[in-house]
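_Full entry_
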Amino acid sequence: MTPILVVVICLALLFDYTNGFHDAANSIATIVSTKVLSPFQAVMWAAAFNFLVYFFVKDHKVANTISKIVNTHYVTMNVILAGLIAAISWNLITWWFGIPSSSSHTLIGGFAGAGITNALYMGSGVLNAVNTGYILTILAYIVLAPVIGLVIAYLVTILILHICKRARPATAERWFKRLQLLSSAALSYAHGGNDAQKVMGILYVAVITAHVIKQGDPMPNWIPLACYSAIALGTMSGGWKIVKTMGSRITKITPLEGVSAETAGALTLFFTQYFGIPVSTTHTITGSIIGVGLTKRLSAVRWGLTLNIIWAWVITIPVSALIAAIIFAILRVF
């Protein structure tokens, strides 16, 4: 292994770690806000299911999609390095300010931005650098993933309310607190399977670019093991600022609504993972929480905060791409 490949591997796993503590809120915000588990119990619960994916998911479709975002001709170790530094930087900035932006999209934006910059230096067009089919699908699901989560959460909540309309409130709440352990576990499992694979795709490209393995060779087993471990460790570290935003500031959540939101988020992620579509866990669970709030009334959702979150979604890919372009230009000097 060359020194630059070692640096790339370390930064990729560092990004996976920051992804874990940045996106821990996705898995645990509702279960903490409903007081089903304490924050410490919740992050341990989520981390365990983040890692459990390693033993069951062997078809890495999302990783395959990520590995093909930038066309092979324009991928260099500097491109990968610039993309990772940009993604880590934006993750830390948004974490610091408690903004639930997408770790997935910052990684995609960073990788694509560095690849496009390299293509421009090589005298090629922007569209030659990236696989436009994959990029357009990812851009479409920036909108579709939260909408799917919203619709499913709305329908699931209405269905549950109809089924349980004659139940005693205290009994129902006790049962939904138990069920929320399952729905939170499902969301954490889906989160691990979805988000860890994005870094796996980057590392797969890196070992091919460094000529450790050949194009088309199977992914070395250490890559998924390392990625699932890193994201689980990151989740254990938590992201309390974002937990507060996701768990209580968008809309007030009860155990019943927590079950609905987490179930909707997990189902959406399982669907997109099956088709190899890298979506944002953050966007998905945010849409699900909004869907739950809409079952009460429009005013139950704090739309001012929601619009601020959406603006963060909109700028994540272009800002990450711009940061990566600047970093790539600096790396070329050395």
